[in-house]
């Protein structure tokens, strides 16, 4: 039933997204989780504490966040039961955990802004999806940032929540989303969060490991459906460059995308005025990325999405046949 839930939730979110009127009316699960994380950060992460104490409080915060989310979602699942009606309601709820439509819309907005209004508009559009300093980016850097964000966020915003929905149902998908949101908010290496966010960052690395590898594979396979994309170069780049990335997971989808498009992605970047060193994914590829490359990357991502939905549909059908055997 869990893979069936993941399959239908992906279809619903692909077609409908999460409506803005609903965000305005009741918010979004990420907003609710983020509010809880912010409250725990304020209560437990105190500057006067030792490094070890703040690290322990970060573990307490992560366990509290995950425990609360799992408790609520298990309660919802139990209350609804196992009927087809319950599956439909759970699929609608679970569709809020993936970001197929919104990710595509935000990345496409960067290409459209560059084409229609130029660099300033492109910088503003890309600032909505990346954390690096947009004023430091020329047009090729804006394009690379959009493509890198698409690759990484496809993994942790689409593949990973869908995978954990398939493994653990609504509770599994929601717990993943809570952990990933915690990593985004407190898992970075700032003075305030280096100790407190340690648990969130390490746990996020662990739970994203299978999805990042699956996403890379999906990008490689998608090359067969996109003219000009190279499955051979994507595969070769993954095995050569993915493990060199500063992140244990982001390098896999970024390397696959870089090889597929013949680009050199990642490398040194500026965050908050600080140059952060990193290896290039697709070393030797072009650095002069264009809006056309963004659109080609989006085509790859769309086919990867179709392949993933088909995979979950096949797993759901297999589970159904086994249950009836």
Automatic annotation (TrEMBL):
Organism: Neorhizobium huautlense
Keyword Lyase: no
Coiled coil: none
Keyword Transport listed: no
Highest taxon above the source species: Bacteria
Described function: Converts cobyric acid to cobinamide by the addition of aminopropanol on the F carboxylic group.
Family from the record: Belongs to the CobD/CbiB family.
Protein name per Swiss-Prot or TrEMBL: Cobalamin biosynthesis protein CobD
Subcellular locations according to the entry: Cell membrane
Single annotated GO MF: adenosylcobinamide-phosphate synthase activity
Regions crossing the membrane: 26-44, 56-76, 303-323
InterPro entries attached to this UniProt entry: Cobalamin_biosynth_CobD/CbiB
Broad class of where this protein is predominantly found: membrane
Membrane topology term: Multi-pass membrane protein
